[in-house]
Structure formats: structure tokens, C-alpha cells
DNA sequence: GTAGGGTTAG
């Protein structure tokens, strides 16, 4: 008989409430109720709560720390509860915590023992950390307990060694198997592919005594990862069985290679093959539509999403907002944006950038303020749009305030692009000294584009001396940089130094530097047109 | 009473 005061079993209603919960606030409600009624002390009830907290559709560091608080408030957690929290941390950005909790388990007063589940999770944590020393120690313990007989634990170890770069150990374990196991082979193959070690992947693949769809999917993505999309396509076409991942890998490959026509063609093939597209497919197809500026196909995909009752949030919402923005339908973009409940920072970023790029500067900044008011943390991409909005609108004090907010409030290290916006903004107001001071914090070598920006500002403010100084600096840095030549000759031209202009142009030719033409695309009446620009511009 | 290995995304 148990001496511990066990709580009564929880009523089924609270358990089913937890089962259907899909937000942290619903779990808080269940949690509060359980604390009040004492059901939280029932191990099964608290484990249901914890499991749900670790598998919410929306997970963040917040949900994870909530899960941790459930764990820490559980008196004498059983092995299931330990395993659940260890699993949650094993693939999180903080896998070390999984290890800390694992040590706590080993030293637990109520003598909890690690089991085969514990080891799959903790080995995975070592893999995530890339910490082979820890991995080896855990492996030792696995062997001692005799759990290396378990194929799940065994395969996770194979993957861990591969992840840590110990390919020979990983391979040795595969060879040590009495019976061939395709997942064991795939565990090593996947790491070769992930690291772009395509030769190793190919060699291993040829040697594999067992293969499945996933093995071939890895090979296709292996070709894609090293930029050989056509080779990937050959493997893909020869596959007898294709699952949704096969199609997605190939489609993603074309998207990465900017081969948007192929993306759209493959998408049609996929539908003809009666394979159901998932979010990953649709995100890529939409991004191809955005890439070619095809509003009609974007709309078609949107209709497909609605027809099939696919929920739009996060990734998919971002892709839709983006495609409508890129195709110039800012109203449709807003409609999607406002109709989406689950937005992540990228969704906000796409909307802010879209508004800003279409000249709705106030709306862009208002949307940014809304985001802040909603308690969402902006990232560096957000600030690119925000600062560029300020720069476009000549909003000097706002721009300075945002730049300060980014650095001091959100602790985001500005990148060259952020500095670029500030230089541009300061330059427009003729605050060349302030801009130069800002730039001087950066190594010149890293920021030629910023100096170019300051150079054009100095030209438009007739600070010819500064302009000439920067132009020479740019050429010194990179004698093949066309922009440097263009700018320098423009400076000289504005001073009427035509002889020097000719000299620069001669030097440019002798270095073999040409000005690259710009290129842009637009859809008119359902046909995508491509334009080349840049010729005939005075040098 | 609940669980585990290798996989594509802006």
C-alpha cells in the first residue's frame, strides 16, 4: 500500500479538456483547476498536461519553459514525466537542459531508472549538441544497462556519431547489425547529405543493401544541396515510389535554384499524380509565384488552399502575404494578414516589407507599432524594413529612434543593411559627418556598399572632396568593382574633369570590368515578361 | 493508461 498521499484520479472531463487544448492559456486553466482540486498530484494527470505542453501546435521558448515549470513542480516525477521533458529539450535550442534533467533523473531520490525511451531522447540531445564526449558516456551507460539491444536506441546512437562527425564509428555500428536495417543506413546517409558530403553519400547509397523512399529522398536532396538540380531531377524521375517529401524536395530544389517555371510544372505533375500537397509544397510553390510575379498562379494556389480547407498560418500565411505583395496586390495581402490568427515574426515582416515597398510608409510603421504592442519580438529582418521605411520617407528622428531601439532595447547587432539605411537617411539630410562616424565603426573592407552609399550622398550634397576620397578608396579596395568606376567617373564628370573621366573608363575596360545589366520581371495578362535594363546609361 | 530511430519549409 502506498504511503504517499495520492490524489484521486482526475475526472475524465479534465483529461479530455487537456487533450483538445491547443493553447498555453487553455493549459493554464486546466493547470489551475488541477492545483485547486489536487488532481495535479496525480501522476497520470500531470503527465497528460506536460505531454500536451510539449506538443502544442505553437511552440516557443515560452511553452518550453512552461513545460519545464510543470516538471519542476511535480513532486517525485516518474520516468514517463522525466522522459517527456527530456524529449522536449533534446531537439530544442537548449539541449544541455535535457542533459541536466537526465543527471537529475540518475540522482533522483525516488530511484527512477532510465529506460529505452530515456536513452533515445538523451542520445538525440547529444546529437543536437554535437557533443560526442557526452554521447560516448551515455553510450557506455546504454551498454552497461544492456539497452544497446534496442534497435531504436541503437539507431539513435548511429545518428549521434554521424552528427558528431564520427563517421567511422557510425558505420561500424551499422556493420555490427545482425540484420540490415534501412533506418540505420539512412541515419548516416542523412548526415552526409546534410553536410553536403555528396561523394560519401553516393558511395554509401551504392553500398546499401536496403533502401526505401526516404533513402532516395535523401539522394535527391543531396544533389539539390550541392546545386546539381538536373542530377536531382534524374534520380527523382527514376523513383518508382514517390511520397510527398520526394515531391517537396524536388520542388524546394527548383525554388532554391530560382527555376520557378519548373516549380510550377512539377506542382502540376504532382497534382496529376494525385499526391496531396502539404504546407511545405504550397509555401514553395507560392514563393515561385512570387519569384516570377505571377498573380494568377498565386491566386490559383490560394483558391486551392481555401478549397481544401487548409489552415493558413505562420509559413503559409507568410508565403501568401509575400506573393500578394510581390504581385502588387497590397489589399489582398492585408486581407490574408488580417485574417490570420497565428502569425509569426516572418508574417509580420512580409507585411511590413510589402507596405513599405509599395510606399505605404505610415502603414508600415503603424504595423510595426502594432507588432510591438502585441508583445512580439522584432528581429533583424523587421528592422531592415523599418529603417528602410524611415529612410525612404526621410523620417530622420524616427529612423534614429528605431536604430536605437533595435540596438539598446532588442539587443540586435546591426548588419550592413541596417547601417546602409542609416547612412542613406543621414546622407539625405547632409549629415555626412554623422554618417561617416557611423561607418568608421565598421572595417572598410566589409562595407564597400555602404561607402558607395555615402559617396552618392556626398555627391548630391556637393561635397566633392569627400566623394573623390571615397571613390578612390573603393577602387583601391576592389579594382574590379564596377560601381567604384561608375561613381568615380560621375564625380569627375560633375567637376568637368573630362580628361580624368576618359582615363577611368579606359582603366575600366583594361581591367575587363563591365556594368551588369539589371533584370526585372512583370506579369501582363497572365504572361510573364522579362526586362533587361542598364544599357545606354551615361557612364 | 500515455512515448521512441532517419526526412522537405519563409
UniProtKB/TrEMBL annotation:
Keyword Repeat included in the entry's annotation: yes
Ranges: PPR repeats: 181-215, 243-277, 344-378
One of the protein's GO biological processes: RNA modification
Keyword set includes Repeat: yes
Xref: InterPro entries: E_motif, PPR_At4g14850-like_plant, PPR_rpt, TPR-like_helical_dom_sf
The species this protein was found in: Anisodus acutangulus
Protein name in the entry: Chlororespiratory reduction 4
GO molecular function, one term: RNA binding
Cited NCBIfam families: PPR
Keywords: Repeat
SUPFAM superfamilies according to UniProt: TPR-like (SSF48452)
Domain of life: Eukaryota
Amino acid at each position: 500500500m502506498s504511503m504517499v498521499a495520492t490524489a484521486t484520479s482526475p475526472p475524465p472531463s479534465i483529461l479530455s479538456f487537456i487533450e483538445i487544448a491547443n493553447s498555453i492559456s487553455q493549459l493554464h486553466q486546466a493547470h489551475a483547476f488541477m492545483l485547486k482540486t489536487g488532481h495535479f498530484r496525480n501522476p497520470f494527470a500531470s503527465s497528460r498536461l506536460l505531454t500536451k505542453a510539449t506538443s502544442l501546435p505553437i511552440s516557443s521558448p515560452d511553452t518550453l519553459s512552461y513545460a519545464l515549470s510543470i516538471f519542476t513542480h511535480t513532486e517525485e516525477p516518474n520516468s514517463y514525466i522525466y522522459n517527456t521533458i527530456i524529449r522536449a529539450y533534446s531537439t530544442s535550442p537548449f539541449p544541455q537542459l535535457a542533459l541536466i534533467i537526465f543527471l537529475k533523473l540518475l540522482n533522483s531520490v525516488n530511484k527512477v531508472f532510465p529506460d529505452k525511451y530515456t536513452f533515445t531522447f538523451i542520445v538525440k540531445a547529444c546529437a543536437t549538441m554535437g557533443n560526442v564526449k557526452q554521447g560516448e558516456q551515455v553510450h557506455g551507460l546504454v551498454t552497461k544497462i544492456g539497452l544497446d539491444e534496442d534497435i531504436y536506441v541503437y539507431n539513435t546512437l548511429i545518428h549521434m556519431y554521424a552528427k558528431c562527425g564520427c563517421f567511422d564509428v557510425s558505420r561500424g555500428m551499422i556493420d555490427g547489425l545482425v540484420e540490415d536495417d534501412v533506418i540505420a543506413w539512412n541515419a548516416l546517409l542523412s548526415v552526409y547529405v546534410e553536410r553536403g558530403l555528396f561523394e560519401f553519400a553516393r558511395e554509401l547509397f551504392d553500398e546499401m543493401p536496403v533502401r526505401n523512399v526516404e533513402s532516395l529522398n535523401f539522394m535527391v536532396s543531396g544533389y539539390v544541396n550541392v546545386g546539381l538540380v538536373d542530377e536531382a531531377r534524374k534520380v527523382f524521375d527514376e523513383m518508382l515510389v514517390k511520397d510527398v517529401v520526394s515531391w517537396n524536395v524536388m520542388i524546394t530544389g527548383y525554388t532554391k535554384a530560382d527555376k520557378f517555371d519548373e516549380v510550377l510544372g512539377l506542382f502540376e505533375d504532382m497534382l496529376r499524380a494525385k499526391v496531396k500537397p502539404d504546407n511545405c509544397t504550397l509555401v514553395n510553390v507560392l514563393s515561385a509565384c512570387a519569384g516570377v510575379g505571377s498573380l494568377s498562379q498565386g491566386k490559383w494556389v490560394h483558391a486551392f488552399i481555401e478549397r481544401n480547407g487548409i489552415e493558413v498560418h505562420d509559413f503559409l500565411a507568410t508565403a501568401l502575404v509575400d506573393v500578394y505583395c510581390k504581385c502588387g496586390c497590397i489589399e489582398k495581402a492585408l486581407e490574408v494578414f488580417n485574417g490570420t490568427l497565428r502569425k509569426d515574426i516572418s508574417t509580420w515582416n512580409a507585411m511590413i516589407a510589402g507596405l513599405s515597398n509599395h510606399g505605404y510608409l505610415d502603414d508600415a510603421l503603424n504595423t510595426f507599432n502594432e507588432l510591438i504592442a502585441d508583445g512580439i519580438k522584432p528581429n533583424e529582418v523587421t528592422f531592415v524594413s523599418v529603417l528602410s521605411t524611415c529612410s525612404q520617407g526621410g523620417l530622420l528622428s524616427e529612423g534614429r529612434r528605431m536604430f536605437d531601439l533595435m540596438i539598446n532595447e532588442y539587443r540586435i547587432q546591426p548588419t550592413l543593411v541596417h547601417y546602409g539605411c542609416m547612412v542613406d537617411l543621414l546622407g539625405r539630410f547632409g549629415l555626412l559627418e554623422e554618417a561617416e562616424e557611423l561607418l568608421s565603426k565598421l572595417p572598410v573592407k566589409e562595407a564597400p556598399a555602404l561607402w558607395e552609399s555615402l559617396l552618392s550622398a556626398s555627391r548630391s550634397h556637393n561635397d566633392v572632396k569627400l566623394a573623390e576620397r571615397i571613390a578612390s578608396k573603393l577602387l583601391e579596395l576592389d579594382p574590379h568593382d564596377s560601381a567604384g568606376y561608375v561613381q568615380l567617373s560621375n564625380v569627375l564628370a560633375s567637376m568637368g574633369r573630362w580628361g580624368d573621366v576618359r582615363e577611368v573608363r579606359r582603366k575600366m575596360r583594361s581591367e575587363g570590368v563591365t556594368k551588369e545589366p539589371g533584370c526585372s520581371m512583370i506579369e501582363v495578362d497572365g504572361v510573364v515578361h522579362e526586362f533587361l535594363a542598364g544599357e545606354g546609361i551615361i557612364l
